[in-house]
Specification:
The protein is mainly α and 268 residues long. Strands 1-2 form a two-stranded antiparallel ribbon. Helix 1 runs antiparallel to helix 6. The longest helix has 46 residues. The protein is globular and about 65 Å long.
């Protein structure tokens, strides 16, 4: 293969798509994996100790938000919702709710939408957390993030630092709004993670998204346009999501630790 073709087409193409994928969609995979891991381990602890119903103290709110987000995103990407149950706990299957949807196999928009449908609980759940912060803790400073223009890695570290400092300097522990916020955010964050089926849907949509990105970048290289800077510039809009994902991850970790400690007598 000609070295000029490699250096002027293949390498720039691979580099551009990799940067765009990691810079824009990477946070959904990283935080989605971590949130799913803590959520699964917490539910396993409930199952082995107080029983399946132990998770219901957060599921009554978290599950409807989780399922409704799937339904709304499915509609946005032209899927037909065939069945929806926002909250219907099933002891036999362990399910809490479901959304069934179909789409035309030749609809590229619908196929790409599978990624966003699978990730919908993270997106809409974060928006709910944002509203909880705004209405119950309006003085929280870490939500007022500056617009970032640096790399995605720097963005992640900056928002995590600002998130932690914002939470640790809260001065409203004596107010009822704070404790209400804490409980409601526990409910939402504990069911923010995509399920295993959601992850499969995300991967299916991501593969089609990757194909589209490849085609767009091929066209951009052929006409001499650099679209990487434009796409990655959206990082400054992702700052708020990274902050909220970080908060959800902290809540999920605290939830796991609490259940782990309280379950020690049951395990003995």
């Amino acid at each position: 293969m000609d070295n000029t073709f490699l250096s002027e087409f293949i390498f720039p193409l691979v580099s551009a798509v990799t940067i765009q994928i990691i810079g824009v969609f990477g946070i959904f995979f990283v935080f989605g994996f971590l949130l799913s891991m803590f959520q699964q381990q917490t539910q396993n602890l409930y199952q082995r100790t107080v029983g399946w119903k132990g998770i219901l103290w957060t599921a009554w709110l978290g599950t409807p938000i989780h399922e409704l987000s799937h339904a709304l995103m499915a509609k946005l990407f032209m899927h037909r919702v065939t069945s929806i149950s926002l909250f219907k706990p099933n002891k036999r299957t362990g399910g809490l709710g479901h959304v069934d949807h179909t789409y035309h196999k030749w609809n590229l928009w619908a196929r790409i939408g599978n990624f966003f449908i699978g990730a919908a609980p993270m997106i809409f759940g974060s928006l709910v957390l944002y509203l909880l912060f705004r209405f119950l803790l309006p003085g929280t400073t870490f939500l007022d993030l500056p617009l970032y223009t640096d790399s995605s890695l720097s963005l992640i570290f900056s928002t995590i630092k600002q998130t932690l400092s914002g939470l640790l300097t809260l001065s409203s522990f004596s107010t009822w709004q704070f404790w209400l916020f804490l409980y409601l955010s526990f409910c939402v964050a504990s069911h923010l993670a995509p399920s295993r089926q959601d992850q499969k849907v995300m991967i299916h949509g991501f593969l089609w998204l990757l194909v589209v990105l490849l085609l767009i970048n091929i066209a951009a290289i052929l006409i001499g346009v650099n679209i990487t800077d434009f796409i990655v510039s959206t990082n400054h809009f992702l700052g708020i999501f990274i902050a909220l994902f970080t908060y959800a991850l902290i809540i999920s970790l605290i939830h796991f630790i609490i259940v782990f400690i309280l379950s020690i007598p049951f395990r003995r």
